[in-house]
Design brief:
The chain is mostly helical. The protein has helices at residues 3-30, 35-56, 65-90, 96-107, 123-138, 140-147, 153-162, 175-199, 204-215, 233-246, 250-257, 263-266, 268-292, 299-314, 332-341, 354-372, 389-413, 420-431, 452-466, 470-473, 478-481; strands at 381-382, 385-386. A hairpin with a 2-residue loop joins strand 1 and strand 2 (385-386).
Length: 483
């Protein structure tokens, strides 16, 4: 690995972080908040590291694939450490481990929080929380590719390592152009959402923060009660639609904006993704309505709560409008499946990804048919194209590894959790970048009660999940470090 090239890109990354911290410090200053100095000092310190690092590592060597993995893995770690300083210096979070947990939760768009009450937190810090999800949603290093003079394969290595999903679609021949287009679509949707939320009665600050975290499928809110605090059918409906949009491949959004309106429906992964959402919403509404019928609850109230929750968990956003812990027990396995499923490839959502699950189901169906008809030739198609055995093997291997690492995470969390529901759901919620789980980390709770050792494990799971396993796991292989 070429450390000079790797840390030169990381210097640019830290520079972006410092700039955003400085902006949040300005917002805090305009509101005459004590957090101004914490944000200003964090920005100055981060920039003080970034500038000399940038000067000392300047070179013209292009990034290799191994370098790209190194940049993403180390870049996210250093960005997480830098981003933790505003929390500690402002006193919002006393523990450095918990502050790192909060920052990584933001950058990985997980949304798990250790801050029990948000109403007293300075607006500069709340904006910083939202911005960590904003830059993490589309990928902070993809943003760096868009502004850095990294040409050709160098930018592609970062894109491959950071962008989620089994396929990496270019929408422009040059990687920097692809990065700019993706960030352009992302920004346009955020601006539209800000306007719609403002029309729904949110003030500008809440509208901006919630738009950042909705399109990033992050789920950080400015209110302790999350979206439930606004108690608005309009706001919940708008957020539900945009969570689903954020869970769809952004390359397809780009094509739709270019005039290919049918691009959404022609994509098999989107049809599967929306089909699962609708099926779970309808079935969940029926079960919840039956459980609440004696109390006089109507169909509309049940559908409102279930549809929002299914969209929130399936897109791994983690916003809350109702306490799904109080739902019938039969629905809890469905919610866990939605957490693991996640959104589409190329979206800002976490999880295994709908496309991979769709391929797995097709593979199982093919094996059943081959059991009955051994001589049959039954191709598995990804979209309209037959899928090669190499891609099928990579998808099966990824899903198996994902579930295995999740199981290890559950076992590792048992000593640091009061019950198995907390251990299991915390591990699943963090590796899938969902946020809330069940029991003591449920929708009305937070992760403050988890000991620091448990928070450290969950921080690692968030990184492993956001970077889709291989980028992080490659670092422990001796072959990665050999010349």
């Amino acid at each position: 690995m070429n450390f000079r090239s790797v840390f030169h890109v990381i210097a640019w990354l830290l520079g972006v972080m410092a700039l955003l911290m400085g902006f949040c410090g300005l917002v805090s200053y305009l509101h005459d908040e004590p957090a101004t100095w914490a944000l200003g000092q964090s920005a100055a310190g981060t920039l003080g590291v970034a500038l000399p690092l940038w000067v000392l590592t300047r070179n013209k060597q292009e990034l290799s694939r191994r370098d790209g993995l190194g940049v993403v893995a180390f870049g996210w770690l250093f960005a997480g450490i830098a981003g933790a300083f505003p929390y500690v210096l402002s006193g919002v979070i006393a523990s450095p481990v918990a502050a790192l947990f909060e920052t990584v939760s933001g950058m990985t768009t997980t949304g798990a929080s250790v801050i029990p009450v948000l109403e007293g937190v300075p607006q500069g810090i709340l904006l910083w929380r939202a911005l960590t999800q904003f830059i993490g949603g589309m990928g902070v290093l993809i943003l760096v590719v868009a502004i850095l003079p990294i040409a050709g394969a160098g930018g592609m290595q970062l894109y491959r390592a950071e962008m989620p999903g089994p396929t990496k679609d270019r929408i422009e021949p040059r990687m920097a152009s692809t990065a700019k287009m993706l960030w352009g679509v992302y920004t346009i949707l955020i601006v539209v959402l800000i306007a719609l939320l403002r029309l729904g009665g949110m003030d500008w600050f809440d509208a901006v923060c919630h738009s950042f975290t909705t399109m990033a499928t992050g789920g950080f809110s400015t209110r302790t009660a999350s979206i439930a605090a606004f108690d608005s059918v309009y706001i919940e409906s708008v957020v539900t639609v945009f969570m689903l949009l954020a869970g769809i491949n952004f390359a397809l959004h780009y094509r739709v904006l270019r005039g290919e309106v049918s691009a959404w429906w022609k994509d098999g992964e989107i049809r599967f993704f929306l089909g699962v959402f609708l099926a779970c919403s309808v079935a969940g509404t029926a079960v919840l309505h039956q459980a609440r019928a004696a109390a006089g609850a109507g169909w509309g109230a049940s559908f409102r709560e279930v549809a929002f929750t299914c969209a929130s968990l399936m897109t791994t956003t983690g916003f809350v409008t109702g306490d799904y812990e109080r739902w019938p027990v039969v629905l809890k396995p469905v919610l866990i499946v939605l957490m693991l499923l996640g959104g589409c490839a190329g979206s800002t959502a976490g999880g295994i990804k709908a496309g991979r699950i769709q391929v797995m189901l097709k593979a199982i169906g093919r094996e059943v048919r081959l059991f009955m008809q051994p001589q049959a030739v039954i191709p598995i198609r990804l979209g309209r194209k037959p899928m090669g055995d190499d891609i099928l093997l990579s998808i099966v291997s990824f899903v198996a590894l994902y579930l295995f690492v999740t199981l290890l995470g559950v076992l590792a969390m048992i000593p640091f959790s009061p019950d198995i529901q907390t251990a299991g759901s915390a591990a699943i919620a963090c590796i899938s970048n969902v946020g809330p789980g069940f029991s003591t980390v449920g929708p009305t709770m937070n992760f403050a009660a988890i000991p620091e050792a448990g928070q450290a494990i969950l921080t690692l799971l968030m990184l492993v999940g956001r970077l889709e396993l291989y980028t992080v796991l490659a670092l422990i292989l001796p072959a990665f470090w050999r010349k």
